[in-house]
Design the sequence.
């Protein structure tokens, strides 16, 4: 266990991360559960396919 902790002692010099998460309003849901399962979310607003760069609307 001590060997495991020694590997991460150098990370103590970095501050904790912070995140800004805007309030999300869920207005529309996938009605077809199979489609929601394939998209990975029930919420259409959160369905942002990975394109290799940025999210797409």
Sequence:
């Amino acid at each position: 266990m001590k060997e495991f902790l020694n590997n991460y002692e150098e990370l103590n010099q970095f501050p904790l991360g912070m995140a800004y998460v805007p309030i999300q309003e869920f207005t529309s849901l996938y009605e077809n559960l199979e489609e929601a399962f394939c998209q990975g979310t029930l919420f259409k607003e959160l369905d942002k396919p990975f394109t290799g760069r940025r999210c797409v609307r």
